[in-house]
Amino acid sequence: MTWLITGGAGYIGSHVVHEMAVRETVVVLDDLSTGRAERLPQDVPLVVGSVLDRELLDRVLTDHAVTGIVHIAGKKRVAESVERPLHYYRENVDGLRILLEAAAAAGVGRFLFSSSAAVYGMPDVDLVTEETPCRPLSPYGETKLAGEWMVAAAGQAYGMATASLRYFNVAGAASAELGDEGVFNLVPMVFERLTGNEAPRVFGNDYPTPDGTCVRDYVHVEDIASAHAAAARRLVRDPAARLVLNIGRGEGASVAEMIDIILDVTGRNDLAPVVEGRRAGDPARVVASVGAIGKELDWAARHDIRTMIESAWAGWCLRHGRPVSP
Ligand code: WQD
């Protein structure tokens, strides 16, 4: 097998590349809008370009004799998607359609798609299963759900094995060099506050949860990567696979609990969190049921929250030229 990994120079994509390149032949396509070539292993070829460029896709699929695709490239900022919905539909939906057309024309038989827990919106259940109704609340979530539909329909029509993997809240890094460079999620946002000697912010403590703060399912990016490798192996074994799977730990952690661990890991217990108003659109609780992925891929997450935070902090310190404390 030769796998094309789109978005392979990004935060999540580069972890998937490092994991899959150990056993498989891998080529990366990335427009480097947020990715960086330095994230890739030396021997993995990088093609700089967009999935919207059909001619380029045809050339890459032929030149590298690609037999499977892992599509991770895409826009992923919920708030930005509300401001620029058509940009998100273009990049995430048009981009995927063009990639699927090229894949079908080239006879690619395996297709793995990065989806998101954002497809569920505000699920009203303790554990979210893949059968929980999908009611996305943002254009971002809509593009992921539309993407899943397109992937399954194309797989059916053109004889491709497919998997859509719904990531829950991704954090951590396999090494400091591969850390998340965006400051758009809880862990890096708290790091940024601490680095500026400011108290971390809690967006609402009046939710119907045990401590009043929102509960999420945080999963280490290395676990996300190993789930992709497991899904890719399954698609190779099972050419008729049509999988939709949650990737999470199956355990919730509240914002207050997360901040407690972050303060401990960073040695900043002096900066007690401050409670602010709720952020619009935040569900109280989103935690994955991981029964399906355990059964289908014989996979389970291995890393705990402390490991995620320690590894993310090491990356933050490296990028900001400061010693890892305490
Ligand atoms: C987690 C919790 C905040 C910062 C989003 C997307 C989702 C996925 C991951 C891509 C929330 C609270 C945050 C802070 C806080 N993305 N918070 N203080 O919103 O669960 O998920 O990113 O695929 O689709 O929706 O993640 O990390 O932004 O927030 O209290 O300084 O932390 O309100 O409850 P979210 P997040």
From TrEMBL:
Signal peptide: none annotated. It comes from Streptomyces halstedii. The keyword Transport does not apply. The keyword GTP-binding does not apply. Its EC number is 5.1.3.2. Its cofactor is NAD(+). It catalyses: UDP-alpha-D-glucose = UDP-alpha-D-galactose. Residues 3-248 form the NAD-dependent epimerase/dehydratase domain. GO terms for molecular function: UDP-glucose 4-epimerase activity. Pfam families: Epimerase. This is UDP-glucose 4-epimerase. Belongs to the NAD(P)-dependent epimerase/dehydratase family. Pathway: Carbohydrate metabolism; galactose metabolism. GO terms for biological process: galactose catabolic process via UDP-galactose, Leloir pathway. Keywords: Carbohydrate metabolism, Isomerase, NAD.
